[in-house]
Amino acid sequence: MSDANKAAIAAEKEALNLKLSPIVHLPENIGVDTPTQSKLLKYRRSKEQQQKINQLVIDGAKRNLDRTLDKRTPLLPPPDYPQTMTSEIKKKGFNYIYMKQCVESSPIVPIQQEWLDHMLRLIPESLKEGKEREELLESLINEVSSDFENSMKRYLVQSVLVKPPVKWLEDEGGPLPESPVGLDYSNPWRSSYVQARNQIFSNLHIVHPTMKMLLDLGYTTFADTVLLDFTGIRAKGPIDCESLKTDLSIQTRKAEEKIMNTWYPKVINLFTKKEALEGVKPEKLDAFYSCVSTLMSNQLKDLLRRTVEGFVKLFDPKDQERLPIFKIELTFDDDKMEFYPTFQDLEDNILSLVERIAEALQNVQTVPSWLSGTSTPVNLDTELPEHVLHWAVDTLKAAIHRNLEGARKHYETYVEKYNWLLDETAVENIETFQTEDHAFDEYTEELDCCVVWEVYV
């Protein structure tokens, strides 16, 4: 293409551009709410005018209030109280009360329901039946919960606040309990623990396995038994005191023989085994056997004590079903009316049975004495303590006197009413009457009395 043609084409394009308007490209964010556009769209002239009006109203109200307050009488200054009324002690007291109220108003964890359930399980079921009992239990639970909450508040106050030395403040119920002091593990304890354990095993012989076997043997033999059987005494009916004494003495002797033929051989058999003295040093052998003797003595003493207590319970006036029935005769001998046996003899015979029970099992040899076969045996100390015997005697005396009150009153009634017939007082009255002069009616009345006397005699 020639240069002339190129120039012509360029001239035509330039002429065409002069005739058409240029193409304008729109921005990419057209139609999107920008912050400036949002503010402009939300703007309302009415809101701005309303705010100005409200502010004018508020300013006017303030001016009116200031003018009103200026017309009032000025407030008086606070009175000048004496120093004693606003002392430091009073300020501390009021401050403590305020702080206490703040602490007490803090939330308190209530008592756990498991604790309340455990308390209710301790109450017998018979005490829970009925509507009134249920209301009582509910009030009890409320009271326990209230006391728990009050105690927690008191603990919280005492642990947080320090009570000032002000006399008129109420007492808080005493100081808080001290926290338990734990063991001091600052020093090594292994060696001291081993030393203490070895010392226990070497000196505290009761933990020896043989002692445990001896203890189990005594428990199985004596736990549910006594020397005498008191259940059939009431069923025998009226008995002589001497007969009862003889029967119980025979039972005591038989029970003693049974124990010596059953329990005692088993005890000896324990200590004839090789493992009986295992771990016991020769120098500790005497102490070991001393522990054996003490354990056996305690078992036999407990058996005798329970037997004495069972015998004393026979005469309990509150338990008439087990009370023995004794034969007592009302006799007249040598112009004297009395019971046989006398009350004192009856009391002495009953108390002698306590002594007979206490005399049982007093010839039981110690284990080393039996094993060594010495000519002079050494017996266990099975004597009952003095306080047990004194208690039994005093209790029996009181029970006997109480149970014999009816018989004693019966005897006194006989003596009071009819003793004058037996001591010849009536005969003397008749002889005196015969020596005197009386009318017929008086003789008739006296004869009637004589007939009554003859009937009673």
From TrEMBL:
One of its GO terms (biological process) is microtubule-based movement. One of its GO terms (molecular function) is dynein intermediate chain binding. InterPro entries: DHC (IPR026983). GO terms for cellular component: dynein complex. It comes from the Eukaryota. Coiled coil: none annotated. This is Dynein axonemal heavy chain 12. It comes from Theropithecus gelada (Gelada baboon).
